[in-house]
Amino acid sequence: MIQLNNIEKVYRTDTIETLALNNISLHVEKGEFLSIMGPSGCGKSTLLNLMGLLDMPSRGDVLIDRQTTQQMPDAQLAHFRNSKIGFIFQSYHLINDLQVLDNVELPLLYRKSTAKERKERATEALIKVGLGNRIKHFPTQLSGGQRQRVAIARAIVGRPEIILADEPTGNLDSAMGDEIMNILLELNRVDGTTIVMVTHDANMAQRTHRLVRLFDGSQVL
Amino acid sequence: MLRHLFKLIWNKKKENFLLISEIFISFIVTFAVFTLLVNFYRNYKKPAGMTYENVWTVNIGSTGLSKNKDSLLLVHENLKNALLSLPQIKAVSYTGNNTPFSNSSTMSGLSYLHHDVSRVDMYRGETSYGKVLGLKLVSGRWFENQDRAVKYSPIVINQVAVEKLMIKNPVGTVLGNKNENQLKIIGVVEDMKDKGDFLAPGPKMYTISDTGSVAYMSTILLKVSPDADANFESKVYKLIANSSKGSNVEIGHLTEARRKKNLEVLIPMIILMIISSFLIFNVALGLFGVLWYNISKRRGEIGLRRAIGASAFSVSSQLVGEALVLATFSLIIGSFFAIQFPLLHVFDLPAPIYLTSLFLSIVFIYLLVIFCALYPGKHAASIHPAVALHED
């Protein structure tokens, strides 16, 4: 589903060149739940950004569903992200001025869909994460765990084949973290969604199919 | 997407209140300026209704002239004949001080059935008055000498007066009450723009001078040939000064008087436009600043939108779209106030002037907002999603 070939990512400023990822090759199977671990600054989020087509590698190829992405223009990349990938972030990234339902509808705004269809699918996604009774709330009226569940609903509303989760339990206590993890496991098991999760929590990582460790931008074998 | 933008702006209405107010004030100022400009333009496009080229005004101060009506009539007649004997003079008419484009005016009123029209400009002249000013008859006729001795005082009125009095067939209509001096319309002339090119002509009536009014006829209107130069003017001056000893004689040209009258309107208009431009410029700067600031505050949101499928163009369009939605809120409030002007007949201007100005102001505000939002929108589109998401 996701194929990374000899990926290298270098950040350049006028004076400094930082090698964030060094010769990473990785293959994520369809329906796999992969976790990525490593110390802070080792390149986990950079790797996730490359998989999510939010950034381009300095060298190497990123293939999603067997399609090379390097030459894709911006509009095509945006369409690809919208239809294939769902994102979950540590800090939720919800829009506080919009109600929960409107936040979840967001990805559907960037594809052809009617208002009725958007509402139905967003409500369905919210019910799936157990927030069917919170659709009219604003994010500021929710707990951290509930916010992350809204973020998951937003990630799954477009029915993507891949979910990329960047420390989804990082801001939550262990009970809330478990709840979120269970939802992700359920999505992977029932819907067959391919999930790549960056985490610092070894317990969470152990519950996934495979663990990849990074250290100083390189994959630890 | 439009519904989403409205929802987003509506949910942030408190934060956007100042911006909406700013755009609203700009709209009102723009509407006022456009109303004046459209009104001036409409008046400018109307025909002059007269010929002001090669028309001179000679103002004769009355101090040195005889107070006796008969001798004054004789002086007038002799001077008129002397002037007409000059080949460059095509027509001559004595008139009052209220010549076209002058600052003097004589006002009267007219009434027909239940329609009273006040502030009617009244011009008194001789039978040649219409010829000197090139007034164009629409119907009826101009004065003749025998009009001085008829039962009803004959008058010629302009088209505005006909409209205001609501007379279907004006020629032959008698105006006024039986107890008063009744006036009979003998002709209708085109509207003469005597207050300059930019102001609408009001209702006017023309009457013929008689022996009783000779004392007030202290101005002579001369229609001269195009070759009448400064030498000829000096000759005319001497001729008039000799026949009106002790009086101050002043010769003016209607073209020059018209130019000055136009400037009286144009200069305040230009000043108003400069002041309004500064105001609009400040609003534009404010709008630009607020949009720019909003983008720096919403980097996380922009990063998120890019991640979930918005292209750079969609992000930029969204920012411009939001600014347009804000403008729409302001314009709805502004249009509500603006539409009251034609509904309540404020300033007595025709409704099409207000409606045209309303349309132009809306277009102007939208263009201004698009202009101010384009660069911040472009900046928002250039935000790198991975960086923006990491910052938050």
Biggest interface, chains and residues, is: A-B, 32 and 27 residues
The tally of strands of chain B reads 11
Question: What is the SS-derived class of chain A?
Answer: alpha/beta
Helix content of chain B: 40-55%
The strand order across the widest sheet of chain A is 6-7-8-3-9-10
Strand content of chain A: 25-35%
User: Shape of chain B, please?
Assistant: elongated
Overall spatial form of chain A: globular
Radius of gyration of chain B: 31 Å
Number of self-contained structural domains of chain B? 2
- Through-space gap between termini of chain B: 25 Å
Number of strands of chain A: 10
CATH class label of chain A: Alpha Beta
Order of helices and strands of chain A: EEEHEEHEHHHEHEHEE
Main beta-sheet annotation of chain A: 6 strands, mixed
Can you give keywords for this protein?
heterodimer, A: 221 residues, alpha/beta, Rossmann fold, six-stranded mixed beta sheet, four-stranded antiparallel beta sheet, 7 helices, B: 392 residues, alpha+beta, 2 domains, seven-stranded mixed beta sheet, elongated
